[in-house]
Amino acid sequence: MPTVIEAIMNRSSKRKYLTKPVPKELQEKILSAAQMTPSGANMQPWITYAISSSEVLKNIGDAIIEKMDAGILNDQFIQYYPINWVNPYKKRRITTGAALYKLMEVDRKDNETRIQMWKDNFRWFGAQTVFFVFTDKANIDEAQGALIDCGAYMQSLMLAAQEFEIDSCPQGSTTEFGKVIAQVLNIPDNLALLYSVVLGYADKEDKINSYQPERVSLEESVIFID
Ligand SMILES: Cc1cc2nc3c(=O)[nH]c(=O)nc-3n(C[C@H](O)[C@H](O)[C@H](O)COP(=O)(O)O)c2cc1C
């Protein structure tokens, strides 16, 4: 069993999965552990649709890809990425993307392949289980705390999965099409999709899964005041 530090250090986003379902029993263990995520006032603002139906996942993917192909950039409840990227975050984003494309030998100008790689998100990278995390719109109406709580919940899901050697990929790509997902799933009107997490068994042979972007040093993100 990995230690907490090992689980944190060893987790990385995987983008190609084996055709091997995550047993329901393990999904429940992961979800039960994540249920213990702290939240302001113990609000527990997350509502998760744990979907393993290949038909439903295909329907969601089809609906999103149809929108993309129609030139629609997003249809979302929340804006995840900054509208105006500033440094150093802009530079980190570019470096991270460029390294992935270099690893996959995709040319900078090869837009078609890049779009295809982005669309792989909506084929769930071949995984068979995806957790879609929603919150009540009332929680995020002029308040952001629930977003902090649901972010912590995301990490809990991914770390708990590590214990069972289940890999994951968080998805903000689905945030961008949250309303499409809500429509396909016919979810109650009061809910807004925040993100999804793909879960499964990574294909270790696939080059894409060797990608592990570096982090900046502590000096760049921590200020000690002793
Ligand atoms: C909220 C969030 C949204 C993300 N969205 C996507 C996504 O839509 N597609 C994807 O391939 N990776 C996505 N990622 C993965 C990031 O690219 C990844 O976490 C980052 O590059 C660091 O790499 P690592 O997770 O392998 O350590 C997302 C990560 C987070 C935390």
Key phrases:
globular, alpha+beta, NADH Oxidase, 226 residues, binds flavin mononucleotide, 4-stranded antiparallel sheet
Description of the structure:
With 226 residues, the chain is an alpha+beta fold. It has a single domain, classed as 3-Layer(aba) Sandwich (NADH Oxidase). It is 39% helix and 12% strand. The protein is built from eight helices and four strands. It has helices spanning 4-10, 24-34, 54-69, 89-103, 111-119, 145-163, 178-185, 218-221; strands at 47-51, 129-136, 167-171, 191-200. The protein has a four-stranded antiparallel beta sheet with strand order 1-2-4-3, sandwiched between helices. Helix 1 (4-10) packs across helix 6 and helix 3 packs across helix 7 (178-185). The protein is globular. The mean pLDDT is 97. Flavin mononucleotide (FMN) is lined by residues 12-13, 15, 96, 121, 169-173, 195, 212-213. Flavin mononucleotide (FMN) binds at residues 12-13, 15, 96, 121, 169-173, 195, 212-213.
**Count of spatially separate domains:** 1
* Global Rg: 18 Å
Q: Could you say which small molecules are bound to this protein?
A: flavin mononucleotide
Helix content: 25-40%
**What low-confidence regions span 5 or more consecutive residues with pLDDT below 50?**
none
Shape: globular
Multimerization state = single chain
Named CATH topology: NADH Oxidase
What is the CATH architecture assignment?
3-Layer(aba) Sandwich
Query: Counting H and I runs of at least 4 residues, what is the number of helices?
Result: 8
**End-to-end span in angstroms?**
35 Å
The CATH superfamily label reads NADH Oxidase
Strand percentage = 5-15%
How do the strands line up in the largest sheet?
Answer: 1-2-4-3
Order of helices and strands: HHEHHHEHEHEH
Average pLDDT, all residues: 97
Structural class comes to alpha+beta
CATH class: Alpha Beta
Number of strands: 4
How would you sum up the major sheet? Answer: 4 strands, antiparallel
